[in-house]
Amino acid sequence: MSAEQSPVGKQPTATYDSAFLKACRREPVPHTPVWFMRQAGRSLPEYRKVREGIPMLESCMRPELVAEITLQPVRRHGVDAAIYFSDIVVPLKAIGIDLDIKPGVGPVVEKPIRTRADLARLRDLTPEDVSYVTEAYGLLTRELGATPLIGFAGAPFTLASYLVEGGPSRNHEHTKALMYGDPQLWADLLDRLADITAAFLKVQIEAGASAVQLFDSWVGALAPADYRRFVQPASRKVFEAVAGYGVPRIHFGVGTGELLRDMGEAGADVVGVDWRVPLDEAARRVGPGKALQGNLDPALLFSTTEAVEARTREILDAAAGLEGHVFNLGHGVLPDTDPDALSRLVEYVHTRTAR
Ligand SMILES: Cc1c2[nH]c(c1CCC(=O)O)Cc1[nH]c(c(CCC(=O)O)c1C)Cc1[nH]c(c(CCC(=O)O)c1C)Cc1[nH]c(c(C)c1CCC(=O)O)C2
């Protein structure tokens, strides 16, 4: 399929032919593409500077600021893709859920969603609710040239966890109580969230996202049979809703070694892997027809350059037989990471894999 025939029709041929999108499509690449989850913000001093005095959610609603923060890691590290600067709770805020992102804590929901009556608070998302997103994508696609821009959303389970718990949770007790105790209400909640998430991804693709990643960060808390029964139908609904656009769909979660096949089967083209499962083993678990993304332990970046490079070589060796590989960390960049360690890593992967 050529760029001109691309169902989205907006992305330039050079973007379509980028190493990142080729790897996602399992085509031959000039070098292994690299980007980092949570590359925008967090460890960069230039990020802290532009964010000074501006609350997180407010910064997500200012198109010029969003564009600047999204571009910072591309300029600094030379990564092969940009990820749109936002947060997984932005679409929930946009439909009027009373939540905030507390520094050092994460998303906090004033009145958690736990009853059937609460479901009514989850109304449909329209493009007008997130017009600032469309505007920021417009600025970004002009600036980025051939560098693809990844759109993203939180998956229904991970969003439900924040909504039901009222904030970050280690054990997801309220979430699981609802899931096992009232399976019909749970299914209806996840279905609502699937519609909101799908609508939010559509806005991003129509505004110029070249790929999308669905973050199910906390779904590793579930056993495979429960994942298939309680979560997979909603995640599948999201992936199916955007299938027609033809942009690669990436799916990622932490601690999901036992769920990799099921998460792929939910409808992903690329399966994200954390550092607990080697990529060759992950490929056996996922099965044919999908690319993999991963999987350097983000904490390793606090070690020596030699240690980072030795482990990176092991990852690239394990990935050598894959149909497609996008190099990434096994979870997001940690806030105290030395930005130079990230730049060196990009350079190292590019040099090692140049063909
Ligand atoms: C679970 C999750 C969240 N948000 C996100 C996930 C999935 C990825 C993952 O598993 O890490 C996704 C996310 N959040 C943010 C991005 C930006 C784009 C990127 O660089 O990847 C992305 C992709 C910005 C952010 N999201 C948040 C910040 C920090 C807010 C601040 O600066 O005050 C940023 C830059 C806040 C946030 N938002 C969330 C948490 C747990 C926290 C607090 C912890 C933290 O500080 O990182 C929820």
From TrEMBL:
GO cellular component: cytosol
Sites marked Transition state stabilizer: D87
SUPFAM superfamilies in alphabetical order: UROD/MetE-like
InterPro entries: UROD/MetE-like_sf, Uroporphyrinogen_deCO2ase_HemE, Uroporphyrinogen_deCOase
E.C. code: 4.1.1.37
Main location: cytoplasm
Record: residues binding substrate: R38, Q39, A40, G41, R42, D87, Y162, S217, H331
Annotated function: Catalyzes the decarboxylation of four acetate groups of uroporphyrinogen-III to yield coproporphyrinogen-III.
HAMAP family: URO_D
Quaternary structure, from the entry: Homodimer.
NCBIfam families, A to Z: hemE (TIGR01464)
Protein family: Belongs to the uroporphyrinogen decarboxylase family.
Protein name stated in the entry: Uroporphyrinogen decarboxylase
Organism: Streptomyces rochei (Streptomyces parvullus)
Gene it is expressed from: hemE
